[in-house]
C-alpha cells in the first residue's frame, strides 16, 4: 500500500463514499509521477479551501500550495496543516487562477488540482488555459466539476419536475435561480474545454454516483457505509457501467500536458 493511500485513510479522504473514487484516481497519478520523476511532487491546489486534499498530500511528503480567494478557508487550512504536522509542506496563498503564473515562477507544478472550482469562475476556458500554462511538461491536471445529468435526475426524484426540465434545458445546467451552483457541465463540454486548453484527457469518470442520492437514514452503520463505498468504487472503475458513471454528481477528469 502506498504512503499516499495510508495517509488518506487516516484523514478520511479515501474512506468516504463521496471522495474515495476521486482520491483513488489522484493517488494513482501521484504515484505514477513520483516514479517518473524520482522525487516528491510540486502540487498546486486551485480553490483548495481548507485543505481536504492538500494536507493528506503534504503529509505524504509532497509540497502543496493552496490558492484560494477566501482568507477564512486559508486560516482553516493552516490550522489543519499544523494539526497534521505538515505546515512546512503547505503554503497558503490568497488568490485565484489569474495569480498562478506569478505564483509558480520557474517551479512549475507537477500536479494541479482544480476541484469544485471551475463552476464558479467567469470563464472556464480561460481558467483551464491558465492552468495548462503553468503545468510542467508532463504535468497532470485533476479536474472535478458538477454534472448536469445528476442534477436532472436528483430534481426529478425529488418530484421537482419543472426544475429537472430547467436543468436539462438551460445552457448553464442550473435548475433555477435558487440553485446554489452557478454552472454545471456535460462530459463533452468539459473534455472540449480541456483539449482546447492544450491538455490531453487521460480518463474521465463520474463520482458520487449513489452517495448523494441515498437517504442518510439508510447509511447509519459502518457496514452500510462500507458497502456503499465498495459500490461507488466498483461502478466508477467498471468499464461496462459508463452510463451509471455519467449520473455521478461530479465528473472527474485526469488530463496531461504533453
Task: Give your account of this protein's structure.
- This protein has 258 residues and is an alpha/beta fold.
- Helices cover 43% and strands 17% of the residues.
- It contains eleven helices and seven strands.
- It has a seven-stranded mixed β-sheet, sandwiched between helices.
- Helix 6 links the parallel strand 4 and strand 5 (140-146).
Spatially, the strands of the biggest sheet line up as: 3-2-1-4-5-7-6
Mean pLDDT: 90
SSE series: HHEHEHEHEHEHHHEHHE
Strand content: 15-25%
Q: Which residue ranges are poorly predicted, with pLDDT under 50 across at least 5 consecutive positions?
A: 1-11
Quantity of strands, as a count = 7
Shape: globular
Short description:
With 258 residues, the chain is an alpha/beta fold. Helices cover 43% and strands 17% of the residues. α4 (71-83) links the parallel β2 (63-68) and β3 (90-94).
Supply the key terms.
single chain, alpha/beta, seven-stranded mixed sheet, 11 helices, globular
Note the topology.
Layout: H1 3-11, H2 20-37, E1 42-46, H3 54-59, E2 63-68, H4 71-83, E3 90-94, H5 100-104, E4 111-115, H6 124-134, E5 140-146, H7 148-157, H8 161-169, H9 187-196, E6 200-207, H10 222-237, H11 242-245, E7 250-256
Parallel strand pairs: 1-2, 1-4, 2-3, 4-5
Antiparallel strand pairs: 5-7, 6-7
Helix pairs in contact: 7-8
Amino acid at each position: 500500500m502506498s504512503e499516499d493511500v495510508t495517509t488518506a485513510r487516516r484523514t478520511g479522504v479515501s474512506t468516504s463514499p463521496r471522495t474515495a473514487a476521486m482520491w483513488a484516481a489522484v493517488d494513482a497519478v501521484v504515484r505514477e509521477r513520483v516514479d517518473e520523476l524520482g522525487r516528491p511532487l510540486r502540487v498546486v491546489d486551485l480553490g483548495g479551501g481548507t485543505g481536504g486534499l492538500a494536507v493528506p498530500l503534504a503529509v505524504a511528503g509532497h509540497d502543496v500550495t493552496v490558492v484560494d480567494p477566501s482568507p477564512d478557508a486559508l486560516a482553516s487550512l493552516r490550522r489543519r496543516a499544523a494539526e497534521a504536522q505538515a505546515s512546512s509542506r503547505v503554503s497558503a496563498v490568497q488568490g485565484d487562477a489569474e495569480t498562478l503564473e506569478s505564483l509558480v515562477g520557474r517551479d512549475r507544478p507537477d500536479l494541479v488540482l482544480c476541484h469544485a472550482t471551475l463552476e464558479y469562475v467567469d470563464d472556464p476556458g480561460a481558467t483551464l488555459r491558465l492552468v495548462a500554462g503553468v503545468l510542467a511538461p508532463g504535468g497532470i491536471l485533476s479536474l472535478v466539476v458538477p454534472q448536469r445529468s445528476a442534477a436532472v435526475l436528483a430534481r426529478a426524484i425529488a418530484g421537482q419536475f419543472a426544475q429537472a426540465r430547467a436543468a436539462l434545458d438551460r445552457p448553464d445546467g442550473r435548475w433555477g435561480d435558487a440553485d446554489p451552483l452557478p454552472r454545471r457541465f456535460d462530459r463533452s463540454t468539459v473534455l472540449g474545454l480541456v483539449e482546447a486548453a492544450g491538455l490531453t484527457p487521460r480518463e474521465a469518470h463520474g463520482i458520487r454516483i449513489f452517495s448523494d442520492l441515498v437517504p442518510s437514514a439508510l447509511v447509519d452503520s459502518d457496514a452500510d457505509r462500507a458497502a456503499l463505498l465498495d459500490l461507488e468504487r466498483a461502478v466508477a472503475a467498471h468499464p461496462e457501467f459508463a452510463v451509471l458513471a455519467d449520473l455521478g454528481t461530479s465528473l472527474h477528469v485526469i488530463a496531461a500536458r504533453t
